[in-house]
Write a structure and sequence with these properties.
The protein contains 5 helices and 7 strands; from the N terminus they run H-H-E-H-E-E-H-E-H-E-E-E. It has helices spanning about 35-50, 55-65, 75-80, 115-125, 130-140; strands spanning about 70-75, 90-95, 110-115, 130, 145-150, 190, 195. Strands 1, 2, 3, 4 and 5 form a 5-stranded parallel β-sheet that branches. A two-stranded antiparallel ribbon has the order 6-7. The chain is flat, with a radius of gyration of 25 Å.
């Protein structure tokens, strides 16, 4: 019996879900919006047929969720395009208005969406707003463009992330009305809240 054990091959312990570790990056948008779907078709073609990395990045950003396509205010747009006013500012997301901006330069902006206030400000300054299909005709390889994106971690929800409020070295915002000793602390009672006695 013991002599037969030499012929038995050792099996592999495959975890549930199989051996293949697939990429978790999106390959298409979750959105059912027909206009985004058409833009994906267009930029999928452009990223395949041109050597440009710009088109590949735009395509990847078109796949992203709304949270990852953060909006950008006109004030950030102005500061990021300083000295690059002759280039096309490209934002795969929304451009929003900012009342704090007094002087608006003449800009050419391409975005998925521009709010009413921001649109009025850009056009009044003699600027131009393009859609992504117009951009594909004007700059098929992304030449003479500045690719920008909004602050992803500026959401209020992000301020609550991280180590629990009250733990040493934490700057997370509690989900309660105050940051006092009595609110959402439980220090000393739970290891997740600093230490446990």
């Amino acid at each position: 019996c013991s002599s037969d054990l030499g012929h038995i091959a050792m099996g592999i312990d495959i975890k549930a879900g199989g051996r293949k570790i697939a990429s978790h990056n999106r390959t298409s948008p979750k959105s059912e919006n027909p206009y985004i779907r058409l833009l994906v078709k267009l930029y999928r073609f452009l990223s395949r047929r041109t050597e440009s990395g710009f088109n590949a990045v735009v395509l990847k950003r078109l796949f992203m969720s709304r949270v990852n396509r953060a909006p950008m205010s006109v004030s950030r747009l102005v500061s990021y395009t300083k000295g690059k006013e002759n280039k096309i500012a490209v934002i795969v997301g929304t451009v929003t208005d900012d009342a704090r901006v007094q002087e608006m330069p003449k800009l050419t902006v391409c975005a998925l969406r521009v709010t009413e206030g921001a649109r009025a400000r850009i056009l009044k300054a003699g600027g131009e707003i393009l859609t992504f299909d117009q951009l594909a005709l004007r700059a098929p390889t992304g030449a003479n463009t500045v690719l920008l994106r909004g602050p992803k971690n500026a959401r209020e929800a992000v301020s609550h992330f991280g180590k629990a409020p009250g733990t040493p070295g934490s700057s997370a915002k509690p989900y309660v009305r105050a940051k006092g000793r009595k609110f959402e602390k439980a220090r000393g009672k739970r290891s997740s809240r600093g230490f446990r006695v």
